[in-house]
Amino acid sequence: MRLDPRFRFSIYGAFAVLFVTGVGWLLADRMKDASSGEGWQLTAAYLLMLHGGAAMAMLMMLGALVPLHVRRGWRRRRNRTTGILMVAGNGVLILTAFGLYYLGSDMLRPWTSGIHIGIGLAVPLLFVVHVLVGRRSP
Fold first, then answer.
1. What distances in angstroms separate CA 126 from CA 23, 64, 93, 120, one per listed residue?
2. What is the largest CA-CA distance in the chain?
3. Which of 28, 68, 125, 130 could disulfide-pair with 44, CB 3.0 to 4.6 Å?
């Protein structure tokens, strides 16, 4: 069940930007305590802004995917396992992003951040598997 090529490549692009800015932020955040920390801190701030902007675009596309792709795939009983994992993974990313942005709890922040980073690093692999399994199914 292929998507319109423009929409599909928009999703691929948003996922790529999210992954690159997320990993870039992780690296910059780790380097901000180094001797050149001020530059890394500024880099981390810009990467986080880009990451947030890409996340907003991705939220719009995920909302469009529900009626265009998820519902149809579910009704046709195609690619359900990886589809469920994709929906769940993105749901966790959305919830943890909300928690990181809006909840200031010093106790919850490390847990929320760890979950967000772990799922964020895993979702691209799951995304590739979902696409490949979907292309192979009849």
1. 17, 20, 13, 10
2. 56
3. 28
Q: What percent of the chain has pLDDT over 90?
A: 80
pLDDT in tens, 4-41: 999 999 999 999 999 999 999 999 999 988 777 788 99
CA dihedral over 14, 17, 20, 22, signed as positive or negative: negative
- What pLDDT is stored for residue 35 in this prediction? 73
Residues in the chain: 138
The total number of structural domains that make up the chain: 1
| Tokens matching residue 32 | 């901000």
- Identify whether the C-beta of residue 59 lies closer than 8 Å to the C-beta of residue 94: yes
Residue type present at position 114: G
